[in-house]
Amino acid sequence: MATLEIRDLHVSVGAGTDGSKEILRGVNLTVKAGETHAIMGPNGSGKSTLAYAIAGHPKYTVTGGTVTLDGEDVLEMSVDERARAGLFLAMQYPVEVPGVSVSNFLRSAITAVRGEAPKLRDFSKEMKAAMDALSIDPAFAQRSLNEGFSGGEKKRHEILQLELLKPKIAVLDETDSGLDVDALKVVSEGVNRFSAQGETGVLLITHYTRILRYVKPDFVHVFAGGKIVAEGGPELADVLENEGYEKYVKAGASA
Amino acid sequence: MGLDTRPLSTLHERGSFEVADFEVPTGREEEWRFTPLRRLRGLHNGSAAADGKILLEVDAAPEVTVETVGRGDARIGTAFTPADRVSAQAWASFTEATVVTVPKETEASAPTVLRLRGEDAGAAAYGHTTVILEPFARATVVLAHRGDATYADNVEFIVGDGASLSVISLQDWSHDSVHVAHQYTRLGRDARFVSHNITLGGDLVRISPTVAYDGPGGDAELYGVYFADGGQHLEHRLLVDHTVPNCRSRVDYRGALQDEGAHAVWIGDVIIRVEAEGTDTYELNRNLVLTDGTRVDSVPNLEILTGEVAGAGHASASGRLDDEHLFYLQARGITFDEARRMVVRGFLGQLIERIEVPEVREKVQQAIEAELDR
Q1: Quick check: A98 and B333 CB within 8 A?
Q2: Does A117 lie at the interface with B, CB-CB under 8 angstroms?
Q3: Do A79 and B331 touch (CB under 8 A)?
Q4: Considering the domain A3-254, what is its CATH architecture?
Q5: Is A91 in the B-facing interface, judged by CB distances under 8 Å?
Q6: pLDDT tens per residue, chain A (255 residues)?
Q7: Where does the record place the SUF system FeS cluster assembly SufBD core domain (chain B) (predicted)?
Q8: Cα–Cα distances in Å, from A102 out to A109, A231, A240, A251, B348?
């Protein structure tokens, strides 16, 4: 069973002459295959930084702590090594890459992650089935990556990659933001379909409780001031829905 | 730029067939300031003896006539006046010209390929090519340049009323070759012209494509792809001169540069004259810088002398590979090297995939892969 362990993680953004700013201040979290964790918190609490630090974005510098996947040191790995080891980050703002078609991109990613190129026939079939399940127009396969996609199309395309790459641990960074209810349902169904297989741990980062009506978390963590300040079961989401983040923001600031 | 500014590129207005009418460039002139004159091997100052030769091999469509003619042939030199000293020198120095003719209302069933090959970069050669599409003709012409050469030439593309010409000019010279080319296009009424300049090989390559319109409804699309390696100087200077109403032009040139001393120059001049109402034009240049030590000069100039345009714009952007692109691809398990290739392939591929001749398109794709393997 895959396990992602984050211990006392400290992360700064920016470096050089104008100094760096510490964003994560000692994060502890364990995510196991089959579990769904929701990380909730106000804007600026460091939720997305956690996502990008796990994925290895060069903008963020880990200044302390450890991240391991099944005991392997994730922080020692390059971005692509992390992905091949089984980590996946569904991005909040997927970038547009002109001239790189969706099908070419997906095939390259699958080849990299699985270690061998899928047969063209099998790949086409697999891609088409996965696209159908997410109500993605087949014409998408020939379009440039994320170019001219609507917000909802971009998010569905992220979940498409999740389903095709079958990671051990999936981090979904505000995948629900900017989606209308219909798109939210489609995306949530994709996540549920995927996590129902029980082989992946899901770390769902969100600002709103709305998506938790469709994706049921096993654990809810409240993030404030760069660390987890409260933890509980799904009932904690209801508390947040009613009371907001205010008291945690104060707690985080004083900690 | 204000409306009263003089266009930077009205060179053709001072054009002449006499070499002596042009001063020897010193490198301070606007049109020469980016070009390393010392590497021109005398093409610009008359010191290059015309004892070299470019071998021509022709593979013509059955409907198309390709002739080798002497200087006196009445069909050559009608579409242009040399715009600079090298162009005038090439006009004064060639001994044989190539004339390609597509008869009126004839559609060529295959591309016509002119393979130009140099065998000695130490001897200067001069050339002249005239491509004539009679009214309502349609054809694709490929100019494939290879080998070792020091070469200056003028190419005329005369596209008659309602005719359509697609040209692919491939500059795939050896690393010590020098090529200075002028491509002069004249478009008749409702004529269509699509050009691809693919510049990959050569120590110094300087291509100056010019488009002039003789009647309304003309449509020119000028595409270019270049890949400059260490020490290479690849220069493209475009001029689209809108002198008649309701014509269209699109320019999209893209290049990649890698290693010390790689230098790309792109000048994109568009003039919309007072009488050219209803003009629709857009020009774009983008450069992808892959390593340190390279240099890009990109200068778009748009001169609008009428208030009645359908559309006019330009853009230029040069930069490194985008970290966010690489991160996104790497976050899906793709290695840095492969991610870099995918981004470059995608960037140049959007133009390469427009090349309508499959063999040429594949050849260019392979050449780009070879560049990326370096």
Answers
A1: no
A2: no
A3: yes
A4: 3-Layer(aba) Sandwich (3.40)
A5: yes
A6: 899 999 999 999 976 566 788 999 999 999 999 999 999 998 889 999 999 999 999 999 999 999 999 999 999 999 999 999 999 999 999 999 999 999 999 999 999 999 999 999 999 999 999 999 999 999 999 999 999 998 889 999 999 999 999 999 999 999 988 888 888 998 899 889 888 888 999 999 998 888 998 999 999 999 999 999 999 999 998 888 888 888 887 765 554
A7: 120-347
A8: 10, 39, 38, 44, 17
